[in-house]
Amino acid sequence: MNIAHLKDKKCLITGGTSGIGLSIALALAKIGAHIVVNGRETEFTSATEQFEHARVQAQFHPADLTQEAQIIDLIKFAGAVDILVNSAGIQHVALTEEFPVHIWNQIIALNLTACFHTSRLLLPAMKKKQWGRIINIASTHGLVGSGGKSAYVSAKHGLVGLTKTIALENATTGITCNAICPGWVNTPLVQKQIHNIATEKKVSVEIAAQSILEEKEPTLKFTEPEHIGDMVLFFCSTAGDNITGVAWNMDGGWTAR
């Protein structure tokens, strides 16, 4: 897998200050790419230590990705980007008839519409270079449904559809567009969910973790954020030159059932 050509490429990672996005940003930074991350400023302060430990620097922009004008400011700040990773996302669980409308709007705006805006604004520069990579962090919920997650499932299904459309529109331009669809990923957000389950069911954290894995993932293992960073490198490598329009499962067999 040849990734030497990625040195000095300009990368924009949304949601790049924590969790999956941060692991992707670090993976790209460690090979010598120039990194711009978007996320929460408080999280970036903590993430700075990790970038410094890896002996790399990252630029930061705090745009609210639910606001089109702020996305435009982010893209102006980032400049001509070679690799776009749309990783920012939020989640909320409630029955459809009880789902708060304002939270539905936020989830669709951040998890789907923001990815449309970043892509449409960066595609012209990629076309001029005749090279670009757009990688959308979707979810197994971009492929299958789950109760209580109407907005998240809708947004992630939409993101997979957007991925395919951009891939087809740019099939001969040197630009690829792919989605990564993780299942349970070992992030602080998931650990918080596990602790909540443990508290609610009055069981240990270990039993709570095992229960969610047994329900969904045949491998009974969490995907590590670093593995998703490695998959991004694969899509950006020479091995990924003719891979486009895919929704790549990293779900321990969840969607193989």
The CATH superfamily of the largest domain turns out to be NAD(P)-binding Rossmann-like Domain
User: Strand order of the main beta sheet, please?
Assistant: 3-2-1-4-5-6-7
Order of helices and strands: EHEHEHEHEHEHHHE
Q: Report strand %.
A: 5-15%
What portion of residues is helical?
A: 40-55%
Query: What is the helix tally?
Result: 8
Structural class, by secondary structure, is: alpha/beta
Shape field: globular
Domains counted in the coordinates: how many? 2
What is the class of the largest domain in the CATH system? Answer: Alpha Beta
Question: Which regions contain 5 or more consecutive residues with pLDDT less than 50?
Answer: none
According to CATH, what is the topology of the largest domain? Rossmann fold
Descriptive account of the structure:
Helix 2 links the parallel strand 2 (34-38) and strand 3 (58-61). The chain has two domains: 4-184 and 224-256, NAD(P)-binding Rossmann-like Domain (Rossmann fold); 186-222. It contains eight helices and seven strands, in the order E-H-E-H-E-H-E-H-E-H-E-H-H-H-E. The protein starts with 9 loop residues before the first strand and ends in a 7-residue tail after the last strand. The longest helix is centred in the middle third of the chain and has 29 residues, at 101-129. The protein has a seven-stranded parallel beta sheet, sandwiched between helices. The chain is of the alpha/beta class and 257 residues long.
